[in-house]
Amino acid sequence: MMIGAGITRREDDRLLTGHGRYLDDLDIPDALAAAFLRSPHAHARINGMDLSAARSAPGVVAVYSGADLMEIQKPLAPKVLHPDLVDFPRLPMPPSEVHYVGEPVAIVIAENRYLAEDALELIDVDYEILPAIASTAAALAPDAPMAHSGATSNVAVRLVQRSGNAEKALDEAPHRLSEEFFVMRGGGHSMEPRAVAARFEPSLGQVTIWDTTQSPHYARQQLSVIYGMAEDDIRVVAPPDVGGGFGPKAQFYGEEVVVPWVAMKLGRTVKWVEDRQENFVSAMMERSQTHRIEVGFDSSGKLLALRDFVEHDQGAYCAGLQVPSITTATVPGPYRVPDIQIELVACYTNMVPTSSVRGAGRPQAVFAMERMMDRIAEYLDLDPAEVRARNLIQADEFPYRVGIMFRDGSPLTYDSGNFPALLSGALERIDYSAAREFQAQARASGRYVGIGLAVYVEGCGLGPYEGAKIRLTNRGKLLVTLAAAAQGQGYETVYAQIAADATGVDMEHISVVTGDTSRIPFGQGTFASRITATCGPAVHDAGLRMRERLLDTASRILGSDAVTLSGDRVSMDGDPEKSVSLSDIARIANIGKHGITLPEGIKPGIETMSYFAPSRAAYASGAHAALVEVDPLTGGVQVLKYVIGHDCGNVINPLLVDGQVLGGFAHGIGNALYEDTAYDAQGQPQTASYLDYPLVSAVEVPPVSLFHLHTPSPLNPLGVKGAGEGGTIPAPAAIAGAIEDALRPLRARITHAPTTPARVFAAIPRES
Amino acid sequence: MSVRIAVTVNSKSYHETVDDRYTLADFLRERLRLTGTHLGCEHGVCGACTVIVDGASVRSCLMLAAQADGASVETVESLAAGGDLNPVQRAFKENHALQCGFCTSGFLMSVTAALREGPVRSADEAREVLSGNICRCTGYRGMVQAVLDVSS
Fold first, then answer.
1. Is B145 on the interface with A (CB under 8 A)?
2. Do B134 and A695 touch (CB under 8 A)?
3. What ipTM did this prediction achieve?
4. Is A401 part of the contact surface with chain B (CB cutoff 8 Å)?
5. Is residue B96 domain-shared with residue B65, that is, in the same domain?
6. Could you read off the pLDDT of B42-56 as tens digits, one per residue?
7. CA distances (Å), origin A367, targets A74, A301, A359, A402
8. Do residues A723 and A621 touch, judged by C-beta distance below 8 A?
9. Are A643 and A664 in contact (CB under 8 A)?
C-alpha cells in the first residue's frame, strides 16, 4: 500500500539542486520585460496621461495606458455572487478611475526590466484625487464619501444566515454576553510573487500563457470570454514549480489579461514578474473583519443562542463573496447552537481587493466564537475547557446539520469528526492540569502565564469537481494528468501514490503532470483545501479503470483470464514465464501497426479519465492549545508550549500532511502575533515591505506537539479531507485566549488579531 | 555605465561586461542562467537570493555584480557535486524541509555558510541559523531537524 506511506517527495531533488522550473527560471526565448505603472492614490480620476517620453525611452518597445486597450476593458467577474450584490466592474487596467493604491494604469514593454522601470518614471498622469475609504467603519459612517464615484452606498451586500429565532432565544437566555472583535488585514505572501508570460503562435492562432496561477482552467475560461477566443486557442500553463500560492494566486487579475493581450498585439513574447513592492499593493489580501457577537447561555455554560454581526472589508472591488460566506458559515463551529443569526455587511473600501488567504474567512469566525467561549467560562467561573466540552457536537451526531447554509450552496452539514477526542487529546498533551498549576505558581511569583484553547471546523474539498486522466504512454509508463496546479503540495508524489494503489503498477512506473490546460480539458484549481478530496478520488477511480484495461488487454494477449499485475508486468498465474510488460501492451493496443487489424478482443487507446464531484464540502476539524507567558511591561508574548490536534480523515502521505499543518501553523502564528497590513485614513499602505510587515522566521515559530485523528469522510471513496488550512485557522484565537488568560489579574481584554506587543500593552487598563 | 568584471562562480571564471546597476542576483540568473538563486523580496529580508561570496553568505539582490569583481561566488548549483545530493540537501529532503522550494536555495546557502563555522548543537541554535531567511510553507520544523541531523 502506498496510500498512508510517509515517503519523501519526487519534487525535492530538482528543487534542492537549483533546478526547479519556476516561471522566471524557464527558458522563454526573446521575452521582452513588462512593468506596470500603478496608481499612487487610493481613489482618483485619471484626467489624462502623457506617454510620449516613456515611448521614446531607450529600449522601450511599447507603452499602453488603459485607454489604449479599450478592447479588453471588460469586468473581471466575481467568483461567488449573490443576487443582492452591488457590483462595480473590476477592469484589467482601468482607463478613467482608480480605486486603490497599486491598481495598474499603464504597461511598459521593454528589452529588460531595468529599462521598463526607467520608462515608468517618465509617464505623466494627471490624477484628480478623490476622497478615499480605508476601513469598514469609515465605509459605513453616516455621510461617508463613496469608494466608487456615482455609488449611493459603500455596501456591497447584506446577507443574513438564520436558524431558529436567535433574538427570542437571546431574550429568554438566563445569561448573555457580547463583545466586539477585530481581525486585521494580512496577505498570502508566497515567496514567489505572481508572474505571467505569453507568446502568440500566428500559424496556429494560439496563445500560450505561462501563469503562476493556482487555477489555470479558471484563468483560461476568463480569458476566453474577455478575448472572445475559443478555449482551445488559449493554453494556460502553470509551471511545474510555483513558489507558493496560499489563495491570492487562485484569483484572477488584470495583469493576467493585459500581458498576453499585449504579447498578441505586438507579436512578441512578453514576460511580467511581479516584484515584492507590487505584491504588497496589488496581490489580493484578506482577513479584515469586525465581529459584534452576542451569545446566550444557561448557568452550566450551555449555548442557547448566537448572534453575530460581521463587517467584511471587500476592498476596492468584489472578487467574490466566497470569504464572507465562509465566515458566516464557520462562526458556530464545532458547537451545538440551537438558535443562530449571523448578519453580514460587506463593504467597499479603497484598498487592495480581498479574497481568500490560507484560512479564508475561517480564522475570523473562530476568533470571535472561541473568544466568547472563554468569556462564558470567565463569567460563570467555569473552566474554559469544560465549557467547550459541554457544548461540543458528539461523535455519534454525524451527519450534523447546523441549520444554516455553506458557501458551496448546500445546507451546512458536518460529515464526520470527533471533536471531544480532539479537545481531550489537546488537553492531555499540553498537560492541562499541570499547566493550570504552573499558571497559579507563576501568578504567585508575579508572572503572567495563560492557557488558550481553540476548537474549529473547516469546510474543505469544495466542488464542483476535479478531474484526472491516466494514459499508458507509448514507452510503457503510466502518466497521470491533473488539471490541478501545485504550489509545493507534492502532487507529483501524492497522486503517484494513489495511482499506484489503484492500478497495482509500481510507483516508479508512474509519473504525474499538473496544471496545463492543453493536457486535460476541464478543471477548477487548487484552493479551499480541496484537491485531495476531489482530485484524489478522481485519480483513484481512473486508476481502477486503468487496472481493468491493463488486465483485460494482457489477458487477451496471453490468452488467459487468470492474470496478475506486478511491477510493470502482467503474468499468467502459475506460469511466470508467460508475461507481458506495459511496453508490450502499449505496443499492441496504443501504437498498433499501421493498416493492420488489431488482434481480436484488444481495445485500442489505453487511457482512462475520471471526474469526481463531491455531493458537498467535507469537514476537517481540530483543536489547538497554547501556553504563553506575557510581559505586561513590554506587551511581549512568549509561546511556552503549543499543541495541535488535527483530523483530516484518512491520510495519503503523513509526512506531507504534517508539513501542511505545521506550515499553516506558522502562518497562523503570523496572524496571531505579527502580520498587520496597515493603511492610513487616506488609503495609503503603511506596510509595504518586510521591514514593516514581519513574516515569521524560524525563531518566532514555537515547537509544536502535533497529533492526528483519522475520522474518514463518508463523502468520497478515499475518506479524505483537506489539510492545507487547519494549522492556520485557530491559532490567532488560541493565542489571544492564552494572552487574555495570562493577563486576567490585570483585567486586560484581547479583542484584536494580531495581538502585537503594542496591542497587548494597550489592552491592559491604565490604573493597573 | 558599463563595468568589466572578473568573477569566479562555482569554480568557473567569467570575464563579463555588466551595467553598473546590474545586481549580482540578476547577473547569476540572467547572464549565467544559474536560476537556482531566487528573488523573493529584492530588499534583503527574505533571503531567497542568498549566495556565498568569498566565504560569507550574502543577499545577491543587495549586491551589485560590479562589486563581485575579483570575488568567488558559490550558488546552490554548486552543492550537489558529482550529481548526488550533499548531506545538507539530503537532510532537507528526508525531513520534508521544503514544500514549494522557492526559498530553499537561500536556506541551503545560509546553512552551508553557517556549518562551515562549526556544528550547530541545539534546536535553538539551528533556529538562529535559519532566522535570516523566510519560508512561508513549512513552519521550519523540518529545517531545524535537518540542520541538527547534518551537525551530528
1. no
2. yes
3. 0.99
4. no
5. no
6. 999 999 999 999 999
7. 38, 19, 12, 19
8. no
9. no
Neighbours of A605 (CB within 10 A): 10
Q: Do A191 and B99 lie within an 8 Å CB cutoff?
A: no
Q: pLDDT per residue over A120-165, tens digit each?
A: 999 999 999 999 999 999 999 999 999 999 999 999 999 999 999 9
Distance from CA of B97 to the nearest CA of A (A): 8
Selected residues 569-608 of chain A with any CB under 8 Å from a CB in chain B: none
pTM: 0.97
Interface of B with A in 16-35 (CB under 8 A): 19, 21-22, 29, 34-35
pLDDT digits (tens, 9 = 90+) for A227-272: 999 999 999 999 999 999 999 999 999 999 999 999 999 999 999 9
Residues facing A348 on adjacent strands: A315
Identify whether residues B11 and B51 lie together within a single domain.
yes
Contact B38/A12, CB-based, under 8 Å? no
Q: What is the Rg, in whole angstroms, of the alpha carbon atoms belonging to chain B?
A: 15
Pick the closest to residue A420 from A386, A380, A459, A451 (CA basis).
A386
C-alpha cell at A47: 484626467
For residue B71, what pLDDT is reported?
98
> In this predicted structure, what is the pLDDT of residue A244?
98
Chain B CB contacts of A13 below 8 Å: 85, 93
Same domain, B8 and B66: yes
Q: Is A246 on the interface with B (CB under 8 A)?
A: yes
Mean pLDDT over the full length of chain A: 97
Alpha-carbon gap, residue A620 to B43, rounded angstroms: 38
Structural domain count, chain B: 2
pLDDT value at position A261?
98
Verify whether the Cβ–Cβ distance A243 to B38 is below 8 Å. Answer: yes
pLDDT on residue A766 = 82
Taking 80 as the threshold, does the pLDDT of residue A742 lie above it?
yes
Distance CA A252, CA A128 (A): 28
CA of A276 to nearest chain B CA: how many angstroms apart? 5
Q: Residue B127 belongs to a domain with what CATH number?
A: 1.10.150.120
- Rounded Cα–Cα distance for residues A119 and A57 (Å): 6
- Could you say which of B35, B60, B78 is where a domain stops? B78
Pick the residue from chain B with its C-alpha nearest to A23.
B35
Q: A317: which residues sit within 8 A by CB, 6+ positions away?
A: A76, A88, A89, A90, A99, A348, A353
Same-domain status, B71 and B97 = no
Return the half-sphere exposure (C-beta side, CA atoms, 13 A cut-off) of residue A520.
32
Interchain pair A191, B21: CB under 8 A: no
B113 and B73 housed in the same domain:
no
Domain range enclosing B127: 87-151
Q: E strand or H helix at B125, and its extent?
A: helix B123-130
Instruction: Give bridge partners of residue A20 from the DSSP assignment.
Output: none
Using the beta-carbon criterion (under 8 Å), do B96 and A656 form an inter-chain contact?
A: yes
| Amino acid A7: pLDDT | 97
- Average the pLDDT over each of A469-478, A534-543, A574-583, A604-613 and give the range with the smallest value: A574-583
Statement: residue A405 has pLDDT above 90: no
B126 to chain A: which residues are within 8 Å by CB?
698
**Quick one: cell of A303?**
449555548
B14 touches chain A (CB under 8 A): no
Q: Are residues B147 and B125 in the same domain?
A: yes
What pLDDT band is residue A657 in, cutting at 50, 70 and 90? Answer: very high
Interface test with B, best of A16, A280, A706 (most B CBs within 10 A): A16
Strands in A582-703 per DSSP E: 607-612, 618-631, 636-647
What is the distance between the alpha carbons of residues A260 and A382, in angstroms, rounded to a whole number?
A: 61
Does residue B92 sit in the same domain as residue B50? no
Q: Does A654 touch chain B (CB under 8 A)?
A: no
* Residues of chain B neighbouring A490 (CB-CB closer than 8 A): 99
